[in-house]
Amino acid sequence: MNNIPQRDVIQSYTWFDSVLTLKGVGESISEKLAKLDIVTLGDVLLHFPYRYQDRTRLVPIRDTLLENEALIQGSIISYQEVTNKRKQLIVTLEDGSGIIRLVFFHYYANMLKSFKLGALLRCFGEVKLFQKGKTMVHPEYQLVTEDSLVDSHLCPVYASVSGISQNWWRKIIRSLLAYRGDLFAQDPVWEKIIDERFGIDFLAALEKIHLPSPDCDKLLLLERKDNAYQRLIFEELLAHRTSLARVREINHQHCATPLLIEKEKIDALKAQLPFTLTAGQAQAFAEIQSDLAKDKPMLRLLQGDVGSGKTVIALLSASIAIENNKQVAIMAPTEVLAGQLFQQFQHYFVASEVKVVLLVGSLKEKQKKQICDEIKEHHAHIIVGTHALFQDRIHFADLGLVVIDEQHRFGVHQRLSLNQKGGQETAMTVPHQLIMTATPIPRTLCMSYYTHLDTSQILTLPQGRKSIQTVAVSNQKRDEIIARIERHCEQNEQVYWVCALVDESEHLEAQAANDTYLALKQRLPNLSIGLVHGKLKANEKEAIMNAFYAGEIHLLVATTVIEVGVNVPNATLMVIENAERFGLSQLHQLRGRVGRGAQQSYCVLLYQTPLSHFAKERLMTMRSTTDGFEIAEKDLQLRGPGEVLGTRQSGLQQLKVAHFARDFAQIPKVNQFLSEHPLGIASQQLLMERWFKRKTEYAKV
Ligand code: ADP
Ligand code: MG
């Protein structure tokens, strides 16, 4: 596949090795995997199937069910090339119980050659009704020979990206599971207890999930209720809990420079703002101010919905550090957000001597070097950049405060502990840390889980905001919605149309968005319509977003890529297609893209019937409130049985198998486990490494 020398499967692998160590994996595949957030072998093994196919038994053609996949086998009783509109090859199979038609639109000459009358063919595919007969379109097929076996396990189907086939996943994962060796380092202490508790060990759990036996309960697995999943969920929550506790512990061992400010100064700063702080902002800022004055590093989480005014709090906090001659680092999750923050900070400090710089990956090497020098020489005072950029080569002259803007991704901070090797840390002077998140974390969860952080919440938005009007509309009334879009755009306001598949590949998602885009274009010829999805290159995406921002595009069809960091105040209508498939937090975050200007905004949740009980509840919640905390709380309650929502929902989770909302009930059990079995440093280390190892990249602030 490529010429990069690689290790053979026989050689030693560890959980943290890069996927590049696998035979046949070079830069191109590893880049594709990175899109799925897969970098190490451990990541590969923790990439779980979202469904299974049953190829373990042959189904008589008569017994196959329409719209279901089946493995069938029969002899060819006819085959012919037909040209209706498109050339196609039609093959008829017969197995004694019935006949089925196979249709191929793409086929090769040698395929024709191998299809002899009477030859035995085995096929896997979905059975459809076509011209009154059972049909499989483009089934996977093979000519049956004496040694054709059926699968001994259910066949996993993985979320993937284009260029990486299902067979690739199956092969790699199977060989890694068979490899064992150092891959699965076991802990002598906690691991045994957990093995016993769940009746399955780590490796067996992975095997069961990737290669379930034909008689296992598929549904239980897919719902992650099976003991294999339960074990992994428990373990991951344990790892997470442990890493949080370490953050606090380490923080307590360090000192910080107290950042003090006179009351008059701070009053003057507040007075310069074009508005007065809301009660929530004032309270949060008072808490931060009191933390900063201590000689222990602040570790505070500031929560507040989008638009609640967190940035102002960051600005005021930064001012205090600047008054104390300290530098401030501001970390954002994406370049776009870093750019926005940079502008806000620059604007705020424009009349002062304070130098604000932006450090992002797209800068030229020369510029980066210059900025790094300025940081080292203390010529730059406030440094805004992406999380990733803070990892390498930056040396601060005197860093006093780190502000981490996590937007919707909550979780970076927990990894700050991982660069600290167990037991070796000595008291150091470290900067104060303020973590900001727009993910409303339900109070119940906050209290039982985020105990390692001090938290401040801004519960109410500044006055005068119009709340977004939300309706839920059945897809049958799609035409009315399309007509509404036209009227809306006639008033010079703009519209988002969000479409998404959940748990499918990026490729399919892009395709779905593209189909909708084409259909809308046909229906709305007078509008300028744009399309963005995850398969576009960064600069293409940016060009379209800029055109939308500039008002050149009226209607933007998008996948959930628009979730983070888009601010177009003139966009006042959002249509979310298949809204029933989204989790509440994600709906809330998507909806937050409108309602950013002075005009009234609207959100239409377009749903497909029939609705499950939980889906109905979710849509009703969205209609009745725009309060992120209320929605988050409801989200916790609504994770009923049978709800397998997309793995890509954002919100609380940054976890691999566990989902805070879904697995909420496990948290007290995890806490209890830890109090009964306190983990030693080595155990903690192994646990955290197994689950979070490579995430250390954020650690060196
Ligand atoms: P967040 O970062 O929490 O999403 P921002 O800090 O960006 O929110 O604030 C959103 C908008 O509200 C900004 O335009 C900001 O100037 C404005 N704003 C912030 N605080 C107040 C306030 N107390 N009164 C009025 N407007 C405010
Ligand atoms: Mg913000």
Structure description:
The chain is an alpha/beta fold and 701 residues long. The chain has four domains: 58-149, Beta Barrel (OB fold (Dihydrolipoamide Acetyltransferase, E2P)), CATH 2.40.50.140; 186-253, no CATH class; 263-458, Rossmann fold, CATH 3.40.50; 469-638, P-loop containing nucleotide triphosphate hydrolases (Rossmann fold, 3-Layer(aba) Sandwich), CATH 3.40.50. Helices cover 36% and strands 18% of the residues. It has 22 helices and 21 strands. A seven-stranded parallel beta sheet has the order 11-12-10-13-14-9-15, sandwiched between helices. A six-stranded parallel beta sheet has the order 16-21-20-17-19-18, sandwiched between helices. Strands 2-3-4-6-5 form a five-stranded mixed β-barrel. Helix 8 packs across helix 22. The longest helix is centred in the middle third of the chain and has 27 residues, at 227-253. It starts with 26 loop residues before the first helix and ends in a 9-residue tail after the last helix. The model is unreliable at 1-7, 410-425, 640-653 and 695-701 (pLDDT under 50). It binds adenosine-5'-diphosphate and magnesium ion. Residues 310-311 line the site of magnesium ion.
Features:
single chain, 701 residues, alpha/beta, OB fold (Dihydrolipoamide Acetyltransferase, E2P), Rossmann fold, 7-stranded parallel β-sheet, 6-stranded parallel β-sheet, 22 helices, 36% helix, globular, disordered N terminus, disordered C terminus, binds adenosine-5'-diphosphate, binds magnesium ion, EC 5.6.2.4, ATP-dependent DNA helicase RecG, DNA repair
